Amino acid sequence: MVYHTHQQLSGGDPRQIAVDRMRFVEDPKFGIRVEVDGPTTLSMRLPSGAQGPLAAGNDEFEGKTIDRDRWTIVNEDQGAWRMGGGNLFITPQQGNVWQSRFDIKNLFLQAVPPGDFEAATRVNFQVRQNFEQVFITAWQDHNNYIRLANVFDGGRRWQVIRELGGETFSEEYPNTIGDTVWMKIARHGRTYECSVSVDGRSWWPVGPPLSADFAEVQAGIGAICPGSSRKSEASFEFFRFSSGGIVGSGLGQPSPPGR
User: Residue 198 and residue 123: Cα distance in Å, rounded?
Assistant: First the structure.
C-alpha cells in the first residue's frame, strides 16, 4: 500500500511517500479481509529486493554531477546547485528547518551506518545578512536533527541546533575564523559533538556535547538564507566521512573559533 503522509499538523511540510505491506487473510465472517503491517517506524526491507543507498563515504566533488547512489537531495531544486572545479556549489534559498517549518531546499544527505562516526566538510561562503548560513548536519528527519552552522545573526557566528521531537535547543558563539571554515559532527555512542577548524588538524568544540537517540541517521550539508534575498553561492570543497579516527587533512594555520 502506497500513500502520502504529513508528519505534523502545521508548517506546510512536503508530503512524503510511505509504503506498508498488506496481507490477504481468510476470515470466517467476511471471507477475505486485508491486514496492513503498519504504519511502522522500524527498519524494513525495501520492496522487491531493491537495494538501499550506499553507506556514507568521502566525496571530493570532482565529478561532473553528484553521485546519486550515495547522496539523497531533500526538496531538490536543480537550478540552485551545480558541480564544477572540484566543488559543490549551492545557492542558498529562503527555506529552513525549524520546529514546524520544513521548506528547506537542496539538503544533501548520505546514509550513516551504525556506530560512531565523524563527518566533516570545508566550505567557503560569505555570511552577510540574517540568517544566511552554511551547515553540516546529523539528520533523522525534520523534527529530529543536529546542525552546526556558520551563520549571520547580527554578526558572523557559530550556531548549534538540536531538535528532538520538534523541540529546539540552540546556542551561538562568535565566529573568529572567517568565511572559509572546516566544520565537523562526531557521534560517540548517543552523544554528538560539534567542532570547527581552519586546517582540519586542530579542532575546537562549539557548544556542549548533545545527547540524541536517533533511530536512523544521515549526515550531510546544506546552505540556506531565511530572511535574506542576497544571491551568492556557497562552495563546498569536499565531504569526508570516517567510522573512527580523524577525518580530513590540514590547510593553513589554526585559529580559535571564539566563545
Answer: 11
Check residues 17 and 138 and name the one with the higher pLDDT.
138
**Domain spans of the chain, in order of start:** 2-49, 71-242
Q: Are 178 and 163 in contact (CB under 8 A)?
A: no
Q: Give residue for cell 561562503.
A: 125
Q: Does the pLDDT value for residue 32 go beyond 70?
A: yes
Domain 71-242 in this protein, CATH class = mainly beta
Confidence check: pLDDT of 3 > 60? yes
Distance CA 188, CA 246 (A): 13
CA distance 211 to 132: 27
Question: Quick one: CA torsion of 170, 122, 209, 163, rounded to 10 degrees?
Answer: 40
**Phi then psi dihedrals of residue 123, to 5 deg:** -140, 145
